[in-house]
Amino acid sequence: MPTHTPPAERPRERLRRFGPSGLSVPELLTLCVGTGGGGRSGRQIADELHARYPELTRLAAVDVAQLERVSGIGRAGAARIVAAIELGRRCATRDPNRAEPVRGPSDVFARMGPRLRDASQEEFHTLLLNARHHVVREVLVTRGILDASLIHPREVFRLAVMEGAAGLILVHNHPSGDPTPSPEDRAVTRQLAEAGRALGIPVLDHVVVGHGRYVSLASEIPR
């Protein structure tokens, strides 16, 4: 049965008194879960989530369908948690330096690393750049095992053409944490670099993101 918590000790009231930094992870999760369901309070559900995923990076890698299977959480509670994590992730990747041009792979990693760090499967993105190397748009091309046969240059360059991009950077992650490029990574780089040359939109780099480190394939792109 749901337990009764004195009003002054409820997470919403504590948030008002102490601010979000004064709340524990279970309290923050309680606010995301809401009132709970299935005979369980929001705090009981939050405590279970925290026990299952004691590290926030593990919780961040869980998709909404998995969260919905937690007893009492429901579709709305699962959606709120995923949305809150995504807001935090986007906040972490949107700092004042994002207005600066991309000067090299370290800038790409600073921008995309926090987002891709928690991904449970491979994600292939492109950064579309203007002539001054500012990012004009980020595009998720595909999610899943990277396969050159499944990444059609049309899908990669369609938005680049529409946006009038002067160049683009390829980015994808290795969920294993090891960013060492695979033969498939190199094949995708060559395939898309050739397409970019034909279209007049050069591929400037392909950055493979791991846990806390990255590898650039820029040196393997013919100029």
Strand composition percent: 15-25%
Shape field: elongated
Provide the helix percentage: 40-55%
| CATH superfamily placement of the largest domain | Cytidine Deaminase, domain 2
* SSE order: HHEEHHHHHEEHEHEE
What gap, in angstroms, lies between the N and C termini?
67 Å
CATH domain fold name of the largest domain = Cytidine Deaminase, domain 2
Return the CATH architecture of the largest domain: 3-Layer(aba) Sandwich
Class based on secondary structure composition and strand pairing: alpha+beta
Biggest sheet, strands in spatial order? 4-3-5-6-7
Q: List the total number of helices.
A: 9
Short synopsis of the structure:
The protein is an alpha+beta fold and 223 residues long. It is 43% helix and 17% strand.
Give an overview of the whole structure.
The longest helix is centred in the middle third of the chain and has 20 residues, at 74-93. It is built from nine helices and seven strands; from the N terminus they run H-H-E-E-H-H-H-H-H-E-E-H-E-H-E-E. The termini are far apart. With 223 residues, the chain is of the alpha+beta class. The chain has two domains: 7-92, Orthogonal Bundle (DNA polymerase, domain 1); 95-220, 3-Layer(aba) Sandwich (Cytidine Deaminase, domain 2).
